[in-house]
């Protein structure tokens, strides 16, 4: 019997590293048969970080590869829509997450959900609470993941605990220049020149069930204006194609400039236009709504959309 630890579909850096950090944590706590995995291919940012620090990515896994007596630990997600397809709910034994909880389980399990900026901050906190040592290579990956998920500690989701974790992990990693590392991560995350318009949207997305299915993609970039001026038409067409294929009620692309600390929402449809205007105020102009410094899909964007739908 194995215990697989993995994050959400379309894994981001925090999700992939969390599988590794929580595997190390569980092993040090005595759970030796734990295996880190990914629910999909690594995105360019994740590949960059693992290559930069010469670390091996976890194996990719599907529900078909998980045997009936295997156990599953979910990290960086909890919702059914964000799990791998056909995963047996009865196999889930633990969840470590920092997102809003949408659960309806048939059996009691261990759940640790904390309002922190990154799943890896939760892992760091558990290491510290249990007086465990974080290996340097894992500390380096955790540092990168927290910097990524908190947008260099600028996101509204950032807490004092995230800042403490970054300070501690940078010392363990022997990385003094956090700003330089953050910029390197931003550049890797922002490089979408080789991606098609659909791939840009699908690179980082979540589907929320707010009574209506809402697809929210997010692109974090340092070239927001260039992207919108050069690729807007293609992105709008891709939004419509993805909406039809996924069968969602609404689809929104958030394009976040991580240097300017600004997000613009791109939509193509009267329903989406009405929804985001209701959620954030302002007026959509040429398919774009500037929502200012709201950078977090989890804390700033999704809750406002949910509130607008139930009003």
Automatic annotation (TrEMBL):
The protein's enzyme class: hydrolase
Example of a GO cellular component annotation carried by this entry = cytoplasm
Q: Does the keyword Transport apply?
A: no
Keywords attached to this entry: Hydrolase, Manganese, Metal-binding
Report the EC code(s) recorded for this entry: 3.6.1.1
Protein name stated in the entry: inorganic diphosphatase
Task: Write one Gene Ontology MF term.
Answer: metal ion binding
Q: Which InterPro entries match?
A: DDH_dom, DHH_sf, DHHA2, DHHA2_dom_sf
NCBIfam families registered for this protein in UniProt:
PRK05427.1
Start and end residues of each DHHA2 domain: 182-309
Pfam families per record: DHH, DHHA2
Name its co-factor(s). Answer: Mn(2+)
Q: What is the lineage of its organism?
A: Bacteria, Candidatus Collieribacteriota
What does it catalyze?
Answer: diphosphate + H2O = 2 phosphate + H(+)
